[in-house]
Design goal:
By secondary structure, the chain is of the alpha+beta class. The protein folds into two domains: 145 residues, 2-Layer Sandwich (60s Ribosomal Protein L30, Chain: A), CATH 3.30.1330.10; 151 residues, PurM-like C-terminal domain (Phosphoribosyl-aminoimidazole Synthetase, Chain A, domain 2, Alpha-Beta Complex), CATH 3.90.650. The protein is built from eleven helices and twelve strands. The strands form three sheets. Strands 8-10-7-11-9-12 form a six-stranded mixed sheet, with helices on both faces. A four-stranded mixed sheet has the order 3-6-4-5. A two-stranded antiparallel ribbon has the order 1-2. The longest helix is centred in the N-terminal third of the chain and has 18 residues.
């Protein structure tokens, strides 16, 4: 295609394609896996649920709140939108089977942007073997991507937030603080820093969450709003106290360097930063040893740390040493 042809292709918008043309264009980019019995093209999809139970979750990405098109490509947005839902599924100890996607878009949104979004959704789902099984599109002034994910427990019991027990250890599998550091760097104008990519597109250790479940996690949570905030949900639901030590929180050198670059204590990102989608779990001492062995066997290494312990208490999270700044984490309707 010559330069004129490429320019014309880039100028084509979703309004030019129309609703059904847009849907057909998206569907053509989305292969279906074996769990999807009826895919796009009917009034609803049909997804296999072999043991009669379905794990389901939903989440939204809104332009200006969760992403900016001058920072993130459409492909990045697709990967991120899928990841934050797939992470919730595996945090329950389930294997993701399918997602459905709602897209609210301005009429002048380039078709090429939608193509790349669909590719990002497809590729993130492929990491864990899920399919994009359908969805809907609507005209809107606010660009919004809504994803609902479905998962299969495969005969196992779900790992909830409500079964942490006094005596359990608290562990984290995955990266903490990277997405928050990336956002801080972007806000400071350091868009070319490699850490900025952690905000654009999380690296979710899906396999690690499933292995924590297999090892015998008593409770688990996807760290999306910050380690302290999300462990707070576990503590409240389980009716226990979770004691953390700031000295035990992982603090990689690249976060220290980023903190120096923007004048922020990097421990605040580790304790309070969200969007990395690491997994925090509680396990007995014996189960924690099993988890370490299972995680060590992963083909791609996953950061793993013991950060605290569960004790009897009123359903809260406390630090036994210094409380990091910004540890409260993210709350959607604060401020």
């Amino acid at each position: 295609m010559d330069a004129i042809g490429r320019r014309r292709e880039a100028d084509i918008s979703v309004s030019d394609a129309g609703e059904f043309g847009l849907i057909a264009r998206i569907v053509a980019r989305l292969p279906q896996g074996e769990d999807v019995l009826v895919g796009p093209g009917d009034d609803a999809a049909v997804v296999a649920a072999p043991d009669g139970r379905v794990v389901v979750t939903t989440d939204l990405l809104v332009e200006g709140r969760h992403f900016r098109r001058d920072w993130s490509s459409a492909y990045d947005v697709g990967r991120k939108a899928a990841a934050q839902n797939l992470a919730d599924i595996v945090a329950m100890g389930a294997v993701p089977s399918a997602v459905v996607v709602g897209l609210a878009a301005p009429s002048d949104l380039p078709l090429s942007w939608v193509d790349a979004l669909a590719d990002g959704l497809r590729d993130e789902c492929a990491v864990i073997g899920a399919s994009v099984a359908g969805g809907d599109v609507v005209r809107s002034e606010a660009l919004t991507v809504a994803v609902t994910a479905l998962g299969n427990l495969r005969g196992r019991e779900p790992v909830t937030r409500s079964r942490a027990r006094p005596g359990d250890v608290v562990v984290v599998a995955g990266r903490l603080g990277y997405a928050a550091a990336g956002l801080a760097l972007l806000l400071a104008g350091h868009s070319d820093d490699p850490l900025a990519d952690a905000h654009r597109r999380p690296q979710v250790p899906y396999a690690a969450a499933l292995r924590l479940a297999t090892a015998g996690a008593t409770a688990m949570v996807d760290v999306s709003d910050g380690l302290v905030a999300d462990l707070g949900h576990v503590a409240a639901r389980s009716g226990v106290r979770i004691e953390l030590a700031s000295d035990d929180l992982p603090l990689p050198p690249e976060l220290v360097e980023a903190g120096l670059a923007v004048g922020i204590d990097p421990l605040s990102w580790v304790a309070g930063g969200g969007d990395d989608h690491a997994f925090a779990a509680t396990l007995s001492d014996e189960a924690a040893l099993r988890a370490m062995a299972l995680l060590a066997d992963l083909s791609v290494p996953v950061p793993f740390a013991q950060v605290g312990r569960v004790v009897a208490g009123p359903g809260d999270v406390v630090f036994v040493d210094n409380v990091p700044p910004g540890a409260a984490g993210h709350e959607h309707f604060a401020g």
